[in-house]
Amino acid sequence: MLIGYDGDTLVAPDYVNGHDNTKQKGVSKYGEIEAMFVFGEKTAPRHTLKDGLERIKLMFELNAREKIWDEYTAQMQKDFSDCKDDEYNALTPDEQGAFINNLKDAATAAWVIHGLGEAFAGRQHEEMRNPALLGTWEKISKITNRMNSIGFAIYFLERKIDCSELTHFWDRIGIGDMIRAGIIEQYKTMDAELLELIKQAIGILEPQA
To answer: What pTM value is reported for the model?
Structure first.
């Protein structure tokens, strides 16, 4: 991202945050730029806040309708609880590791939802500063922050669990139950909570439409 120029030198913003991977490393030179998008004056939004909330509602309704978290629970049951010792020990290390790698999908889901929560926490959209909605936004932010914390827990598990040591049935039962009860069931509950809060916000906006 560029914010201007000083003679022949391009100027970039000074990123200050806790995420090293978002910090821009160095400033591009003219010859390194293949395409440039210039943002000028602000224009009126094409869609309203209610339009955006309706799309978010559809996403959570789809999650519930497709029973994605129930499917994830069933997969964890198959991978861990239903796999007998001789079957598990006959797997290659890569095949054993695939069970734990499934956790990455759940972590990704948590961080995507956290990104959604940041939009409500920042309230950059003018309509989002409606005092009648502030309490709803705060509740959404709290839930998405919890999901983000679970995402970090999954990341830790995925890096630390040695699949070659899960040779006993009860070891796999323990891991499977921890993932199911400690992670997936929480996701399912929080999805439902977020859906109700989005519906609540839409209900507040509807009389103004």
So the answer is: 0.69
